[in-house]
Structure formats: C-alpha cells, structure tokens
C-alpha cells in the first residue's frame, strides 16, 4: 500500500503481475504505476503459457467491466482459472446476459440499499458479538476478528444458520488463496477440494430444506429465479450460493483490516475520524478505494476490440487491475493519500456495470457499523506485531494483523453526532 518511489519505478521487464508470492512480500503499486504511464495495455503469460492483457488505467478498466457485450464473464473472471472455470455459465459471476439478469435481478432485492439500511441495528448486534471484549484493551489479531464481519452483514440474508458462521471464513479463504500458509491443507488442489466439499455440503442441505419450506432469504429467492422459462438446477443453486458467500466473506474483511492499518500508520487520521462521526460514510468509501480487496477482474473478448489503443483479438483474456485503477492520478487527486473526506470518490472496489457487486450495500453498512463502534469505544490503535499479507494475486488480503485497542470514552458531543449518523 506504499507510495511508489517515482524516481525508481520498475522497468517493464521486471514486472510480473501473476506471481502470487509477490503480493505477499511486496507492493505491486510501483508496477501498476509504471504500466499506467508506459504500457496501459500490457501482455503477459501465466506459467502455463496462457496469455492475458493487463489494463491499469481507470478509463480502460471501467470500459472493460462495463462492456458486457464485447467482453464475456462466462469463461472465467480471475487469473487462477485462465484455462477456463469449471463453473462457467452456471453462477451469477460467470454468466452473460440474459441468464445473468435472471439471477441478479431477484437477488438484488435481498441486498438493496434500503434492505441493508433497515437491517443496520441487527447488523450492529452481530458486530458487537464478533468484537466481544476486543475493544476493551489487550492484544487481538484483528485480521482473524474481521474475517467474521461479512456473515454479520449477510449471513441472515443468504439464509445460513448462525451455527455455521464461525467455520465458514476459513473455508472461504482457502477457496481463493489455497496456496497461502494460513489456509493451506497440503497441496493446493487438496485445500480447494476440502474447502469446496464442506461448503457445498452445507448449501446442498440448505437448498433441500428450502425446497420443502421457503423462507425470507436468498436461497429461497434463487429457487424461484426464472432463467428464460427454466429454474436453476440443484447443482447451479449450490454453486450460486457458494458464489454469493465467497463474494462477501473474502473481501469485506480485507477492507476492515487495511483501514485499521491506515489508522495505525496515521494516528492523526484516526483522531480526525473519531472526532467527526460525519466522516464515517466517506471514510468507508475511501477504505474501499484504498484497499481494493479484489486486485483484478478478468474478461474474455467476444470479438476483436480496441481497448486503450491496442487491438484485442477474439478469445483473448483481459485482466482489469481494479487496484491500479483506484490509484489513477488522472481520476483521484493524491491517489496514494488516504483521505477520509474524499469526494467525489468513483472507486471501482465493487466493480461497475452489469456485474457490479450486489453485496455492496451490506458491506458498506457493516463497515460503517464497525467504524462507529471503534469511534465510540477506542481511543488509540497501536501495532502489536507485523502484518502478514496474503499470497494471492486476486485478493488483496491481510491474514494476520496483531493490534492493541486502547479504550477511551467519547464526549457527549461526539456521541450525539454518531447517533445522528446512525439514524
């Protein structure tokens, strides 16, 4: 997350955006900065020889994600499946129109901005349970704590019983970062197989329960989704439930962890937010831009198309580096500065276009609730150990973040302001 040394940027020949280990051990922002300046549409190959184009400028990434007529999501959306995703065409994130809309439109109603706001106090109760006594002092690994925040936001909405919430974050992370030491259970294939088996088994049972008796949850909504006169098969239902779970559980904790790291590195920013609760909404949006929890999103060209002045052939893979676009200096003033009052802030953390993350509103609410709870109970946030970053070219993750929260009361004026923001 460092500011690149603009006098010593890497050369093009030194850049490798595929290697997951580089994301664990170093920042890729210098490489992305070089590409935005010198090679905004840049070719590279995976170790297996699959070529992909990288786009790093905000306009080009936005165009790639918005243009679902010329760029397909059905083949696969992350570099880990450059040879094609086995769930291609079966889940919301791997569907093109019109099937995509058949799943997306009914699902959106369960996670709308209105629904998310109406559930805010229920989310707060869950968040307080997750935090427990962590904010009362002592050392805690905030990355482990934050892993449980997403289910506080969407567990009830999806229809996952609370008894299953504690074990799901680790399984979900193993599904996106099977090579990371924190989640590995041996070979990457074994880690993936084990995680998938447990999650799929849970959703298979839940789907069968909802067939017998509908509830007010996403699983029930998906059972009745109409895809041009047909319903999703049981296999497709389980895959889509998995997709919604992964979209939430693997991203929101990273935003929370990176936000805490900012407050550790910049105590003045923490004091500023704590003393002015009106900054909570914009600080959340800045945290989303800053963290960019999904480094990239991939598409496949459906026809020859020119992007950023470069001709992309039909069938070519194109990788939009969201994290790079969210530091584009032509769009964001002082992009390497965390500004909790930044406005406007047209970040791409949730994507854009037809595939924009429908879990955005619940994520915004749970992050706002977390920040409000911190502002109300914590005076200082100090490091208690070095952060450990995730081995993944997809998720910009922190697997360990030891911190000490030093409690402190809030003045009546500030508390009253927070209450106003909450309403």
Automatic annotation (TrEMBL):
One of its GO terms (biological process) is cholesterol catabolic process. Signal peptide: none annotated. It comes from the Bacteria. GO terms for molecular function: cholest-4-en-3-one 26-monooxygenase activity; heme binding; iron ion binding; steroid hydroxylase activity. The keyword Flavoprotein does not apply. Keywords: Heme, Iron, Metal-binding, Monooxygenase, Oxidoreductase. Belongs to the cytochrome P450 family. PANTHER family: BIOTIN BIOSYNTHESIS CYTOCHROME P450 (PTHR46696:SF4), P450, PUTATIVE (EUROFUNG)-RELATED (PTHR46696). This is Cytochrome P450.
